[in-house]
Predict the structure.
Amino acid sequence: MQSELLTLSGVSLAYQTVAGETAAIQDLNLAVHDGEFLAVVGPSGCGKTSVLSLIMGLIPQSAGTITRHKPDLRMGYMLQRDCLLDHRSVEKNVLLGLEVQHRLNPQSYERAMRLLDTYGLSEFRSHKPHQLSGGMRQKVALIRTLALEPDLLLLDEPFSALDYQTRLNLSDEVYRIIRKEHKSAILVTHDISEAVSMADRVAVFSARPAALKAEIAVDYPAALTPLERRRDASFREYFDRIWKELQS
Amino acid sequence: MKRMNPASDAHAAYLKSLRRDARRIRLAQIGVLLFLLLIWELGADLRWFDPFILSSPSRVIATIARLYADGSLWVHIGTTLFETVLGFLLGTVLGALAAVLLWWLPKLNRILDPYLVVLNALPKIALGPVLIVWIGAGTASIVVMGVLVSLVVTTVTVLNGFLTATDEKQLLMRTLGATKLQIFTKVVLPAGVPDLISALKISVGMSWVGVIVGEYLVSKAGLGYLIVYGGQVFKLDLVMASVAILCVLAALMYYAVAFLEARVRQ
C-alpha cells in the first residue's frame, strides 16, 4: 500500500438548524492513500457529501483532525451537476479555475488545451455549454478540475444527473483519465455498482450520523476498466458484501 | 429575417411564406397608422368634430413647421431629451450600484427590504412638490424626478437578476478558491445581465414619465412644458404636436436599448 495522502481522525460534524442540532458525522476515521481510488457509499442523506466539504475545507469540522500529509496537497472538487457557466465557451470554462487562482500562463493554458484535445473535446472549444450533451458537459467539468493539476480528486456523485448509458460510458472514461493522470480520488456515491466498478477500496457509511461501518478492499484479478469489471465474476460478490453491510 | 440556403423546394416555399407573412404584417401596421391619420384629417376637414378641440394631422405638421421656423423646436426637444437621458443614465447606474451593494451585504438587504417594497409601490410622482421645495424649481428637480422614477425599479429588477445565480455555481467557485469579488464578476454579474437589460427597457419608459411630469410642474422649456402651456391656452395643435414628437423620441430611445440588447445577447 502506498503512503497516506490524507487522514481523518475522530472527525465529527454537527449542523445547527432552527429545529435543533443535527449530528451529520460521528467520530469518523478514514485515510486516502497516494494513487488510490476510494469510494464512499452510504444511504442517501447520511452525510457523504459533508465529508468532501470538510476535506475541501469549505466547512469546519466540529471535532477531530484532518491531516494532509503533503504540505501543498492540491485538491479538485467535482460536483453532481457540471455547473458550467453558460456565458463562457468550453475553453473559457476549462480555464476558469486557473483564472480564479491567478495561475493562467502559457504553460497552464497549453496543458489545459492538451487535456481537451486528449479527451476528444478540442473541436468544441469555442462551443457554448448548452450546445453539448450532458456527458460531454460533465467531461468539460472534469477537465476544468484537472486543469488545476490536483493530487486528489473529490467526486461528489458526478454521474448521478446523467442517463444510464451516458453514465456507464462516462464513468469508464473518467476512470481511465484519473488512472492516466495518476491522480488519487474519493468518489462519493449511493450507487453500489458504480463504487465496485471504479474503486480500489470502498468505505461503507452508516445512516446519519455517518460513521465508518466497513472498509472493503476491491481486488480484481487483472487491471480492468469499470465496464469490464461489471462483467467479472467477483463484481457480484463485492456488490453483495456491500449490500449486506448497508442493510445490517 | 436572416436568409438561409433552403434545404429543398418545400423548405424554400416555407421560407418564402414566412417572408410573405412578415411583409404583410408590416404593411398592415403601416396601413393602420395611415387609416387613423386619414380619419383624423378627414374628420377635421368635414367638421365631424371641432379641430379646435381635436386638432388634425395637417395642423400638427404646420405647428411643428412653425416651431422649427422660429427655432424653438430644437430647444424644446433638446431640453426634454437632455433631462430624460440624464435621468435614465443616472437612475440606471445608481440603481444597478444599489443592487450590487444589496447583493454584497445580505444583512443590509434584509434590513432595507420593507423600505424597498414601499418605495417601489409608491408613485414617485407624488414627491414632485417636495422636490421643488427641496431642490428648487428648475432642471435639477426634473432630472431628479426622472432618476427617482427609474431608480427603484432598476434596483429591484437587477437585484433579482443577481439572485438567479445558483448556489451550486457559487459553491463551485468556492471549491476553485474564488474570492467574493471573483464570484460576483464571473458568476453573479453575468447571471444578472438579462435582467439588467430588461431593467434598462423598463426604466427608459419610466424616465420619460418622470421628466414629463417634472416639466408639467416646473419648467420654462421642453415638450412637457409645451403640452401644459398648450392645454392652458387651449392651443390643442401645440399639445398634439408635442405628443407626436414625444411618441417618436420615446420609440427611438426604446429601440436604441433594444438594439443594445440584441448586441449583448449575441
The mean pLDDT of chain A is 87. The first helix of chain A runs from residue 48 to 56. Residues 174 and 180 of chain A are 10 Å apart (CA to CA).
